């Protein structure tokens, strides 16, 4: 376990954020706008969303225009009937390396309800990831709630993994499918956990998953944790919003102790017996109401005999990696690079 700057190792402990939260003014404005629109304008009390308004406000990055130098991209469609496609990011200097590059399957966040791989923020993040590691990054588009409920999102992400395994020639020649990693933030962090479980029970020809990079995964339960009580309304995330997202995601009649939500709870799908379950690098932030659920996930993995590293940033927010003014948004790339390098060398 690591705590940013202190780098203390040991069992999971409570990271107490320093109050009050201080954000750079540009980040403060961006966070306030995102919170306001997703809390009060895009979501409706009847469980639907204003999808037309979302499309208008969700700035897109065309694949032919790169806001990050030295990274190219291309889009591949698997199934137009369910809008299943993915964007491949490749550093332009990939061919100059002596050996192939690892492959990162990235699943975006957004409460299962918002955003996509071509959303400007995620396009930029994946390009930075591809350039800094360096790696081939595959960013997956999946069906969104409430129009499509569980398990659509898990099915879509897993189907992309299987497709790439069966069609390796679709990737750049520098891609090494023997060194694959699953990565995701928020809802994407939830999705990659369940995809990893499915992958352990499936057969792959080329893909070998070496690790998972879980950035503030979206987990929950019926119980109210200390963090949720302490921070019912926080930047980007509020308890009311997470409740709404779970209701839009779950099959009707199910509660938040469903195994998809409370992954370490009473209905959990056990991973102790899954020998191929990958090592996990988990990021937690002090000003995230979800942090206690994320720490329970870490502790559950350890009890299950799985390898897990916890990196805590006590003084930042949910989605910090999307805001370049925050110092943690740069630090995270060092942590990811180190993790990928270590796990890619494993036999």
TrEMBL record:
Domain (Alpha/beta hydrolase fold-3): residue spans on this chain: 104-321
Protein name: Alpha/beta hydrolase fold-3 domain-containing protein
The organism's place on the tree of life at top rank: Eukaryota
GO MF annotation, one: carboxylic ester hydrolase activity
Source organism (scientific name): Trapa incisa
Family from the record: Belongs to the 'GDXG' lipolytic enzyme family.
Biological processes, Gene Ontology terms: pollen tube growth
Pfam entry (one): Abhydrolase_3
SUPFAM superfamilies in alphabetical order: alpha/beta-Hydrolases
InterPro entries associated with the record: AB_hydrolase_3 (IPR013094), AB_hydrolase_fold (IPR029058), Carboxylest/Gibb_receptor (IPR050466)
């Amino acid at each position: 376990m690591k705590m940013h700057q202190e780098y203390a190792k040991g069992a999971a402990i409570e990271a107490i954020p320093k109050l009050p939260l201080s954000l750079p003014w540009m980040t403060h404005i961006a966070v306030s706008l995102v919170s306001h629109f997703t809390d009060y304008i895009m979501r409706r009390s009847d469980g639907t969303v204003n999808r037309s308004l979302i499309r208008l406000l969700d700035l897109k990055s065309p694949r032919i225009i790169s806001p990050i130098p030295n990274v190219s991209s291309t889009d591949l469609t698997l199934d137009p009937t369910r809008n299943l496609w993915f964007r491949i990011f490749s550093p332009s200097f990939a061919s100059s390396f002596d050996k192939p590059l690892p492959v990162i399957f990235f699943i975006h966040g957004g409460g299962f309800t918002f955003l996509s791989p071509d959303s400007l923020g995620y396009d930029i993040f994946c390009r930075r990831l591809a350039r800094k590691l360096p790696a081939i990054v595959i960013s997956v588009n999946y069906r969104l709630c409430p129009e499509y409920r569980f398990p659509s999102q898990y099915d879509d992400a897993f189907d992309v993994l299987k497709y790439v395994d069966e069609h390796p020639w679709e990737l750049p020649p520098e891609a090494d499918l023997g060194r694959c990693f699953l990565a995701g933030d928020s809802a994407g962090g939830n999705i990659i956990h369940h995809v990893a479980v499915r992958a352990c029970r499936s057969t792959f020809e080329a893909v070998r998953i070496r690790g998972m990079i879980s950035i503030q995964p979206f987990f929950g339960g019926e119980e109210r944790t200390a963090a949720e009580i302490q921070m019912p309304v926080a930047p980007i995330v509020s308890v009311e919003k997470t409740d709404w997202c779970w209701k839009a995601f779950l099959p009707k009649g199910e509660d938040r102790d469903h195994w998809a939500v409370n992954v370490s709870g009473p209905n959990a799908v056990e991973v102790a017996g899954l020998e191929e379950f990958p090592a996990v690098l988990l990021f937690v932030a002090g000003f995230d109401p979800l942090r206690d659920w994320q720490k329970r996930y870490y502790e559950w993995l350890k009890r299950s005999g799985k390898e897990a590293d916890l990196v805590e940033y006590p003084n930042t927010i949910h989605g910090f990696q999307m805001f370049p003014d925050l110092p943690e948004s740069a630090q995270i790339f060092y942590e990811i690079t180190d993790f990928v390098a270590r796990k890619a060398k494993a036999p």
